[in-house]
Amino acid sequence: MSFDSLGLPPALVQALQTRKLDTPLPVQEAALPVLMAGKSAMLVSRTGSGKTLAYLLPILAGINAESMHVQAVVLAPTHELAMQIHRVATDLSRDAGLGVRVQSLIGGAAVSRQIEGLKKKPHLVIGSAGRMTHLMELGKLKLKETLWLVLDEADRLLIEEGLEHIRKITGQLGPETRFVFVSATEGPATTRIARGLAPNLDFVRTQDGISPAIRHCYLVCEERDKTDWLRKVLRGLSPERALVFVHRGASAERMSERLEHHQLAVADLHGAHDKFERQAALDDFRKGKAQTLIASDIAARGLDIFGVELVVNVDVPSQSRDYLHRAGRTGRAGAEGLVLSLMTEAESRLAKRYAQDLDIALEQVQLVRGALVPATGDSAQTLRPAPRPFGPGRGGKKRPDPAGPETRKESAATTPPTSARQPQSHDKAAPPVARKRGPALPGAKSGKAGQKVWSGPKRNKPA
Question: Would you state the torsion angle of the CA atoms of residues 66, 29, 412, 155, taken in this order, to the nearest 10 degrees?
């Protein structure tokens, strides 16, 4: 199937082809017919599967450029994700000659400049719910003619502390507004709230879980040695781009300083930086000026950065869902990737949880001469998920739908894996610089052995 067969305007199809995007990815193939038919929908698909274009293309195709009203609103949980969506929409509209005016409305930017921008009558506004409600209260943003409301990373937006802003926005919408909820994960609370906002909701579910092209490893070490191990991993594997996760901004700054001391090109991204500092860090990472970006979870949601070969969890997430979103920064659109978690002996118990909850195998490794190799010793093991009691094909009954079978409308797609598909990325990366590299990132390993008894990890000590 091609994009032109899905009913998109020829100019928009041509703009996609100039980006070498000829074939829709599974979530796009499943979502476009639903959204272009004017239906509200929840799109659930793994990270890096192409969800942004799945909703942007129908919106851009349906906007009336002659109108002077806001016709579509996209909400995002972080400024970085909002600006990424803004860039994709702006570039597509310009290259296709659609004449769609796009404006970002995020916190941290001057309200006066945003008010001036609203005087130009944008058709599509993208930003944070808090800033939009503020502009609505000032009487500067009117949404009565809005036809689309998109909640990107809906599970982050539909939480208790953010619902007040969401309800203020939905209260200003007309009866013809269609809702699109987008997420890599689907929980009963999110589904319940979404159904309350849009009762006639179609579900588009494709490619759940984590891309099978990603290899998952963990290395056990002392907490005080984690930065040293990180330095050795970056030196040994020499990834084109590596994204390192920590819990706190202060940790990101300290780690960045220590790595820069060892002549590693590093940038840090966290909430303590202002909007301009955060954007500068992302730009340096995208353009290749910094090969490593150390970030708090602010970067874990939705960001699409081309060429991230390695994700390192220095501070490991306590929840499997957070691990999923961090891991999704690599292996985008079917590309290969590696996720390495540096764990203390106590933290290593979380590896078993990740394996079980996310249906992945985690291999315990050690660093030998700049390469990650399977750990040796009686305690070394590869953790694999145990058979689940629920779900199709697992020998158990199907898990009941929390919303009830009578209200459920579902549009699902069974499509080939993304590894055979064309990567989709809208970031323009600098050409790779020729340099001496260490051993290539090791490929995924598989085995026939079943799940082993959890008997404790092998501890590594830095040289």
Answer: -60
